[in-house]
Amino acid sequence: MQFLCKEYQDGNPRVRGLVTDTRIHLVPSLNPDGYELAHEAGSELGNWALGHWTEEGFDLFENFPDLASALWAAEERRLVPHQFPNHHIPIPEHYLSEDAAVAVETRAVMAWMDKNPFVLGANLQGGEKLVSFPFDTARPSPPTSAAAPRPLDYEDERPELQETPDHAVFRWLAISYASAHLTMAETFRGGCHTQDVTDAMGIVQGAKWRPQAGSMNDFSYLHTNCLELSIYLGCDKFPHESELQQEWENNKESLLTFMEQTHRGIKGVVTDQQGEPIANATIVVGGINHNVRTASGGDYWRILNPGEYRVSARAEGYNPSVKTCHVLYDIGATQCNFVLSRSNWKR
């Protein structure tokens, strides 16, 4: 925060461009009660683990609705996409009841995500040095018939790894952070606590490394337009004061590069023939089975890797519109606007 403000005031063109062209939201602490507990106990002998849970005893990173399992169950019943959406999956009703086992922090973050049309997000963590991306949930293996006994192989007990439709985009985003970090990609040193789990890249899919259901990353991807990743900044959760300057230098370029990725892909506005914006229109990118929606002003953003895409805009009561959009390697989203005409179907 201090760096962005100071560099902006000093006229740094890169920071000025980032602050001027991007709505930046910063949350200093998602779990302030837990942090306070850990801080009081100090960092020695693993006392930071006290801060993993909220005062009510919730682990925030496993407290969001498990929408991935709901999506996969609907896929197996062939309900997707006509009866069950592949995006903006609604929060289950039982989860919204007042007596549900949901932390106040989780409810606040979900309301915040619904209020703001976020495009890209990162939750910053410690204790490891890598970037983790969805899915964090491991997909259960399909049941085998009793007539076909399973071989005695421990590998069969592991759930299969399910990639998101945006797997290539998530890898790009993760690499943009890890490769700009001063030491994150130096995996020949091994991981912080074990061997390197990132295939010498500094990045890993969450379900492959540490499977967990109900993560903020999976929820963000399946309930909103936002692509969210977990960034583990360094091995020590509570670096000593003398180490903070180096930790900042390690991560400074990565933080800037990552935020700039918001402006990669396509963006635009969906309007009717009178120029009025159409909210909640669906943007479909050919070959990627995950759609996004326009915000209240008819505007949308879709992070994509460089390439040529067939993109369509659809809305209730309108004829769909299709066009080809080109995404270049340079930062700067390609403008792709749509004008939809009213359909003649009488509903």
TrEMBL record:
One of its GO terms (biological process) is protein processing. Keywords: Glycoprotein. Residues 1-262 form the Peptidase M14 domain. PANTHER family: ADIPOCYTE ENHANCER-BINDING PROTEIN 1, PROTEASE M14 CARBOXYPEPTIDASE. One of its GO terms (cellular component) is extracellular space. This is AEBP1 protein. Gene3D superfamilies: Carboxypeptidase-like, regulatory domain, Zn peptidases. Belongs to the peptidase M14 family.
